[in-house]
Amino acid sequence: MTESAIHLVAGARPNFMKIAPLYHALSRESWCRVAIVHTGQHYDADMSDNFFRDLRLPQPDFHLNVGSGSHAEQTAGVMLGYGPLCESHRPTWTIVVGDVNSTIACALTAAKLGIPVAHLEAGLRSRDRTMPEEINRVATDAIADLLWTPSADADQNLLAEGVPPARIHRVGNIMIDAYEMLRDRIESEATREHFSLPPQGYGVVTLHRPSNVDDKATLSSLVAQLAAVAQRVPLVFPLHPRTRRRLEEFDLMAALSAAPQLHLVAPMSYVPFMGLVREARFAVTDSGGLQEETTYLGIPCLTLRQNTERPITVLSGTNRLIPPAQLREAVETVLSGAWPEGHGPDLWDGHTAGRVVESLRSQIERHRAETLAGNAPTRR
Ligand code: UD1
């Protein structure tokens, strides 16, 4: 089989743990050559470089240096960078992951150049079009040639949108592969000791969604809720740059910093952060990935959102959607031991990358065979 060139695209923090297991799995294959394309959507050391180091990823083969900006600037910037790259180093396939602006920008660019696109973490839907990520998911899935889903609900969403069943391959959850790949290091990491916290004696908080942090009244109320919870149980809150900026802009930083037992810290890289989560009593979050990681680890997750694109974490896992006003009450339920137990969904087993590699290899072989037979595969 001729060597296939694969572009593996990553742009923002939640992408890096998704590409890492797949990068390592593809690197071991002789039929392909994988190149990492970093769009530069996230660029700070603690939002990007530290993750590459933790996840044992090499320097990206290509860096588009797009940086921050409005959604239009960011999406267009990635497209302007990725188009010429596809022309000069045309891949056989482009793989995009997750739901960030870089995901749709590279999928759209490749699809228009006739390059087949595979989407890892396809089919998730919150049905909330006020979230930019939901638009990125729907649009990416509409143009992808191969859709790798984490769970049965994602398959159903795609089928309901008219995606041909042959394009949908359920492979499981790649985030669990990242955790298993680094389990030894995560378990030997002493993040909790660093804060002098007892095992299962603290909560971890992450917040960064525009719906929670961009509105002053909403963020003020969240700050008050968190300060009240911290009186009951210590909290560790790594601050996303967007959240830090808003706290400063709305003059809320002093109130938050003054709260006893509330540790405000810089964003943590993957291994120390998972080391902290693993031994937490609960998590409070608006992140997508943490809803999945806590479900896998069986840790109560209080998600401060009105909906989730990952309903399986609520249906079978430990995640619950909590209105901010009920946060204290929900924490009391956790502390009383009455929080429901859950179990990890099928195929969240640490072997997703292997299934993705197999799916891609057979797809490429099939395309080649069809082309040789003079029956070139057509794109929709
Ligand atoms: C992006 C993703 C979101 C994901 C989140 C994880 C989209 C639409 N959103 O949101 O789905 O959950 O990443 O972090 O793609 N900034 C820095 N340094 C950085 C990166 C950002 O200081 O390395 C600051 C910039 O001021 C920027 C702001 O953070 O304007 C927001 O970054 P951006 O990438 O636009 O969106 P996120 O909120 O991070």
Task: Report the uncertain regions.
Answer: none
Query: Per CATH, which architecture of the largest domain?
Result: 3-Layer(aba) Sandwich
Output the CATH homologous superfamily of the largest domain. Answer: Glycogen Phosphorylase B
Number of strands: 13
- Average pLDDT figure: 96
Spatial strand sequence of the major β-sheet: 3-2-1-4-5-6-7
Summarize the structure.
The chain has 380 residues and is an alpha/beta fold. The protein is 48% helix and 14% strand. The chain has helices at 13-27, 45-54, 71-88, 101-112, 132-143, 152-160, 174-181, 183-188, 191-194, 210-213, 216-232, 241-249, 253-258, 270-278, 289-297, 312-315, 327-336, 352-372; strands spanning 4-10, 32-38, 62-63, 93-97, 117-120, 146-149, 168-170, 203-206, 235-238, 262-265, 282-285, 301-303, 319-321.
Architecture overview:
The chain is an alpha/beta fold. It is 48% helix and 14% strand. The chain has 2 domains: 4-173 and 348-372, Glycogen Phosphorylase B (Rossmann fold, 3-Layer(aba) Sandwich), CATH 3.40.50; 190-336, Glycogen Phosphorylase B (Rossmann fold, 3-Layer(aba) Sandwich). The chain has 18 helices and 13 strands. The strands form 2 sheets. The chain has a 7-stranded parallel beta sheet, sandwiched between helices. Strand 12, helix 16 and strand 13 form a beta-alpha-beta unit. Helix 1 (13-27) packs parallel to helix 2 and helix 1 (13-27) packs across helix 7 (174-181). It is globular. The model has no long low-confidence stretch (mean pLDDT 96). It binds uridine-diphosphate-N-acetylglucosamine. Uridine-diphosphate-N-acetylglucosamine (UD1) binds next to helix 1, helix 5 and helix 12.
